[in-house]
Amino acid sequence: MDAQLPSVRDGIDYWTTQPATLDGVLGGFGSCNLPRIDALSSRQFLLSILPELSIVPSSIRPLKAQRLTRRTRALDVGAGIGRVTSTVLLHMVSDVVLVEPVSHFVQQAFRSVSEASRRDKYAGEWKGVARSRKSVTVVQGTLQDLDPRVPLGSEGKMTVLGRVGYIPPEERSKESGFDVIWCQWCLGHLTDDQLAEFLKRCKESLRCKSKGFSEMDGVIVVKENTCPEKQPGVPRIVFDSDDSTLTRSDLAWKRVFSSAGLRIVKEELQKGFPEGLYPVKTLISFVSLAAILIPHLPYWWSSSALSVRTVLDNVSR
Questions:
Q1: Residue 61: inside a domain
Q2: What domain count does the chain have?
Q3: How far apart are CA 317 and CA 312, in angstroms?
Q4: Could you read off the pLDDT tens digit of each residue along the chain, which spans 317 residues?
């Protein structure tokens, strides 16, 4: 592993220099087909794990399946300008909590969802907000300070900019727990120890049947880059001084997941992104897990630029 470790301040300083646009948060790939491919594949992947979230009959949802009787809730961390919230999560769940530390990113996310609530400006985005069927709560703060187990802002470390869309009755205003926790292209800003502790907090905040939440158990979704391992079987971590992030190899990611008490239930290769990826190896294991090893990126790619998704759940389930 490289000697350097990510710095919260350096990471925020880097992203502060990037525009609050799709190109800005996607390393210049916001104007091609990457955002659409990413969003569609993410929604398909989430439905493959939680078919209960499907609102229409499909091959993964029985024709006579009962609708969920409660509102569903997701947490989008390191959310940038709200790209995943607006194009993925709001298509699947009732309410989203969007968390982002960079000031002009989170302000742009709040502006976008506020504008969408007043008129149908964003075709296919911010679904359900204008009619107050769904909601987005926008929060500014770092992953290091975020504790999904406690009410938003209760520890004074996170700043709640506001909730837009559906407003629950007073007796249900103190919502807790999440059905989906989505982490994409942001966990490289955490050290291994910080990441393990963050994932433990996330695990404890998941809604599940054993806690009285009927119909389905919650999941954590991680969609991140990987680097190749120099020695087979040896985890590797590479430090990027540009944005102060760590890029982990497949084994390095799995080592942290294990230390956080999580087990992998599915992995899937992201297809259809721009050329420049190294060859991909595929592995299928035999404990009800389908695993596809992740493509390796050339070193000149920004560590915010892309590639695998892993769904995790509570190891005690």
A1: no
A2: 1
A3: 11
A4: 555 899 999 999 999 999 999 999 988 878 888 889 889 989 988 888 888 898 766 666 665 566 688 999 999 999 999 999 999 999 999 999 999 999 999 999 999 999 999 876 566 799 999 999 999 999 999 999 999 999 887 778 899 999 999 999 887 777 789 999 999 999 999 999 999 999 999 999 999 888 878 678 889 998 888 888 899 999 999 999 999 999 888 899 999 999 998 888 888 777 777 665 322 222 222 222 233 333 333 333 333 334 444 455 554 44
Residue 65 covered by a domain: no
Which ranges of 26-167 would DSSP assign to H, the alpha helix? 34-49, 83-87, 103-118
β-strand pairing of 219-224 with 308-314: antiparallel
Asked whether residue 132 is assigned to any structural domain, the reply reads yes
Whether the pTM exceeds 0.85: the reply is yes
Q: What are phi and psi of 114, to 5 degrees?
A: -65, -45
How many residues make up the chain in this entry?
A: 317
Name residue, tokens 């119909």. 215
28 lies in a domain? Answer: yes
- Report the number of secondary-structure helices (H) and strands (E) in the chain: 7, 12
The C-alpha atoms of residue 98 and residue 45 are separated, in whole angstroms, by: 20
SS3 track for 250-314: HHHHHHHHHHCCEEEEEEEECCCCCCCCCCCCEEECCCCCEEECCCCCCCCCCCCCCCEEEEEEE
Query: In this structure, how many other beta carbons lie within 10 angstroms of the beta carbon of residue 238?
Result: 21
- At a CB cut-off of 8 Å and minimum separation 6, what does 255 contact? 192, 235
CATH at residue 223: 3.40.50.150
Measured distance CA(85)–CA(92) in Å, rounded: 10
The residue among 256, 264, 258, 253 whose CA lies nearest residue 288 is 264
Q: Supply the range of the domain harboring residue 228.
A: 8-56+70-166+175-314
d(CA 204, CA 200): 6
